[in-house]
Amino acid sequence: MANHNGSHQGCCKTGPGYATPLEAMSGPRETLIYVTAVYTGTGVQKPDYLATVDIDPNSPTYSKVIHRLPVPYLGDELHHTGWNSCSSCHGDPSAERRFLVVPGLVSGRIYVVDTKTNPRAPSLHKVVEPSDIIEKTGLAFPHTSHCLASGDVMVSCLGDKDGNAKGNGFLLLDSDFNVKGRWEKPGHSPTFGYDFWYQPRHNTMISTSWGAPAAFTKGFNLQHVSDGLYGRHLHVYNWPGGELRQTLDLGDSGLLPLEASSLL
């Protein structure tokens, strides 16, 4: 699964991003996007890579891949990327949208990519190793990353090192991408993990459900749904406190609640 992010830095006087969605709509268009490219299921034994795509209509390389940044290892399965800083930090003039945080779903690694030094040819800045994440949090299978107004980065993780969904939760990295701990309070982890998004104005975060890594990494098997290895719930959290306030059961019709960015 690929995700893209643009290169525009927003208003440099007040911090990255925009104060409102309306302001973002009236801002300058992106000229570059970064897209994860994965080899999972292809039989190709090459590292996944981050592709830089030129989307400036006035550029001679418009709509072309102008750079590929391969990661150092095989089999990561790069997933939902996010910035180190975004509109959540709009009021902080010291914040800068510079680093792209790229989780490796299967390997458990998290790559940090520098897009500022050379936006058209980004470079690898840091690798957060799965052993460090597991040792300090018990989490594995990182999926979605989002920046927080505090300067931390939050990453949803879908299970423990053995692929059990009961071990999932939310990883916090500090502004230097060191493992800080778990975001949710003890005893408040969701039954299954996937995507998440927060709305500070309502002091609320919603996370969604997918499946146990031990199941989906082997390919989809309908029997696993009957076996209870896939989720069917939305989880409503207090933000930023990390307490699970409500779990919404969407029923046993096989509906999987996946992307969360449009829920709030």
TrEMBL record:
Iron-sulfur among keywords: no
Membrane-spanning ranges: none
Family as reported in the entry's similarity comment: Belongs to the selenium-binding protein family.
Native species: Arachis hypogaea (Peanut)
Superkingdom of the source species: Eukaryota
Keywords, alphabetical: Selenium
Classification lineage: Eukaryota, Viridiplantae, Streptophyta, Embryophyta, Tracheophyta
Name of this chain's protein: Selenium-binding protein
Gene Ontology MF, one: selenium binding
Key word ATP-binding present: no
Coiled-coil residue spans: none
